[in-house]
């Protein structure tokens, strides 16, 4: 099994091997200074890009987001690749918890941190 990469965003002890050549990483991710709303398409564009390297990984298989440190936001992730392709990054779509609506264009989320559970290799 290949060794995971190091990353200062990962919690201590992660990435950790979970099955075969797959690792799980737990990451505290800061929001962007100027959020760009996600535009649907193949692939979608905009959003907040999470790089596999930020998670101590080379590729991202899946991401599970939690609620931000202030309870105001949550995230959904799209790998922007289909058909079994491997992603080196994913797009995070930030949502306001109270309304369920995507965060507006140019919103400053840099003071917010969201914990992500990331699977990959």
Strand-residue proportion: over 45%
Task: Give the termini distance in whole angstroms.
Answer: 9 Å
Physical arrangement of strands within the biggest beta sheet = 1-2-8-5
Q: Which structural class do the helices and strands define?
A: mainly beta
Q: Could you give a short account of the major beta sheet?
A: 4 strands, antiparallel
Total number of domains? 1
Overall body shape? globular
| C-alpha Rg (nearest Å) | 14 Å
Helix content: under 10%
Number of helices: 0
Order of helices and strands: EEEEEEEE
Number of strands: 8
Average pLDDT figure? 88
User: Low-confidence parts, pLDDT < 50 over ≥5 residues?
Assistant: none
Q: Could you give a short description of this structure?
A:
The protein is an all-beta fold. It has strands spanning 16-19, 22-30, 36-39, 45-51, 60-68, 73-78, 89-96, 113-120.
Can you offer a commentary on this structure?
It contains no helices and eight strands. It is an all-beta fold and 121 residues long. The chain has one domain. The strands form two sheets. Strands 1-2-8-5 form a four-stranded antiparallel beta sheet, with no helix packed on it. A hairpin with a 2-residue loop joins strand 1 and strand 2. It starts with 15 loop residues before the first strand and ends with a strand. The mean pLDDT is 88.
Overview features:
0% helix, 121 residues, mainly beta, globular
Helices and strands in order:
Blueprint: E1 16-19, E2 22-30, E3 36-39, E4 45-51, E5 60-68, E6 73-78, E7 89-96, E8 113-120
